[in-house]
Design brief:
The protein is an all-alpha fold and about 450 residues long. The chain has one domain. Helices cover about 70% and strands about 0% of the residues. The protein contains 23 helices and 2 strands. Strands 1-2 form a two-stranded antiparallel ribbon. Helix 4 packs antiparallel against helix 14 and helix 10 packs across helix 18. The protein is globular, with a radius of gyration of 21 Å. The N terminus and C terminus are likely disordered.
């Protein structure tokens, strides 16, 4: 049986037409890097929503955009060429956005206490993730994720958690200018163009995302003209500032943010294995630990200057599958562009005027691609009663938390609310703990292998 499994894996065709370590012409790298930026929907949504919820002045919201771009670019560079060395793009994590929003409003210290507590939590997390001689305290978790049941189900839970920024934002709200026909129509056109170019576009398939975005945006603008006033009035450059919203630390908030940092670790490691499998790239636990350490370093920077802790962006992983380009130099280009654009606020605002329904429509397709790859990974599981119990309970715990009545949540402590409302935390921890308890023999066998 072991010989058959090895042989099957050896003949499995590679997903990528351009390998992970292959270099490409600069023009193609720039195009792919820009395409990755357009796929980072949260980058264009979270800073504006957070800033407006706290009634920040426009210049501070612009600063938040700039720091979000720059910190994500820094971590993407670390992942691409220095630590993890995979074609990984790090984007703002929805759970971090939610925690900063909730904690900032519930606590007297506001955003200053939120970011200060995030900084302390990130320092603790970095110590846990520090790779020493190829090992770290999170190494056992990395080895655990080699199991197809763990990695496949986690990918599906990640997609479930981010699904609320896909189709809902595609349709929009009744108060949005294009609701509902224009939002749906322009987004559908962008998706149709993306599908057509991806399947039959030949060489231009590598620009499928950009072409789809352009088509959807043009359709939207023909009906509802897009104003450039926000671009004209935006400042030119943003310079990082230490503790821009003040500084305070509260121990209970440190614990909350430590819990918030768990899903990016679990989710990112699962997607590392997806990308490595597509590129037929070996991924030992020490290399995974280096990738998680890069995420921890990024969270420290966020606590100092603002922004959001990061996670591997599923839609960017979907782009790898769509374009079949796995070169880590393409994501390096994305990281460099993110840092440059993070300091150039006028360009940041130019990205923001791309209609949200169009961005969300394309994200819906890309999220779906990655979700189905999680299903594909589960097909490799040798199912038995124990695995049915592990997978079934974890999935229903993760999904069920999204449907708990608001009145019930309000009666619970803040950290319990954050736990229940994030499927990757509730379902992911249930999955990992149950698998460790009920499938210990398989874990021991995998470790020996």
């Amino acid at each position: 049986m072991a010989l058959q499994a090895t042989t099957s894996k050896a003949v499995e065709p590679a997903i990528f037409e351009v390998g992970i370590h292959e270099r490409m012409p600069v023009a193609q790298l720039a195009m792919l890097g820009l395409q990755n930026i357009f796929g980072m929907t949260g980058m264009l949504v979270f800073p504006g929503l957070l800033g407006r919820s706290f009634n920040l002045p426009p210049e501070q919201i612009a600063y938040l955009y700039g720091m979000t771009f720059a910190t994500c670019g820094l971590i993407t560079i670390l992942q691409s060429v220095l630590l993890l060395r995979l074609p990984i793009v790090q984007g703002p994590y929805a759970g971090s956005f939610a925690a900063l929003l909730v904690v900032g409003h519930l606590q007297s210290g506001g955003l200053g206490a939120a970011y200060g507590s995030l900084l302390v939590a990130s320092l603790i997390y970095a110590v846990l993730a520090l790779p020493i001689r190829g090992r770290s305290l999170i190494g056992p978790l990395a080895r655990l994720l080699n199991a197809p049941l763990i990695s496949g189900l986690l990918v599906m839970l990640i997609m479930t958690q981010v699904a609320n920024i896909a189709l809902p934002n595609w349709i929009g709200l009744p108060i949005s200018p294009g609701f509902p026909a224009l939002n749906i129509g322009a987004g559908a056109l962008g998706v149709a163009v993306l599908i057509a170019v991806s399947l039959w576009g030949g060489r231009i398939r590598r620009a499928a995302i950009l072409i789809g975005l352009a088509a959807g945006t043009l359709c939207y603008a023909l009906v509802k003209p897009i104003s450039l006033a926000a671009v004209a009035s935006a400042p030119l450059l943003v310079v990082p500032r230490l503790f821009p919203f003040g500084f305070a630390v509260q121990p209970d908030l440190v614990i909350i943010f430590l819990l918030v940092l768990i899903p990016p670790a679990i989710g990112s490691m699962a997607l590392y294995h997806v990308v490595a499998e597509w590129g037929q790239e070996p991924l030992p636990s020490g290399r995974v630990a280096q990738g998680i350490f890069a995420v921890a370093l990024g969270s420290i920077v966020v606590g100092l200057v603002g922004g959001f802790s990061t996670i591997v962006y599923p839609d960017n992983v979907g782009m790898l599958r769509t374009t079949r380009v796995g070169s880590r130099y393409a994501t390096l280009a994305a990281g460099i562009l993110l840092i440059v654009l993070g300091g150039w606020v006028k360009f940041d605002m130019l990205l923001v005027i791309v209609p949200l329904p169009v961005l969300s429509a394309l994200a819906t397709l890309l999220f779906g691609i990655v979700f189905m790859h999680g299903v594909h990974m589960l097909a490799k599981v040798d199912w038995d009663d124990r695995k049915f119990i592990v997978a079934g309970l974890a999935m229903l715990v993760g999904l069920g938390g999204m449907f708990i009545a608001p009145a019930t949540l309000q009666a619970m402590p803040l950290w319990v609310r954050l736990f229940l409302q994030q499927p990757v935390i509730s379902g992911g921890l249930t999955l990992v703990i149950l698998y460790a308890v009920l499938c210990a023999r398989e874990m021991t066998g995998a470790a020996k292998t």
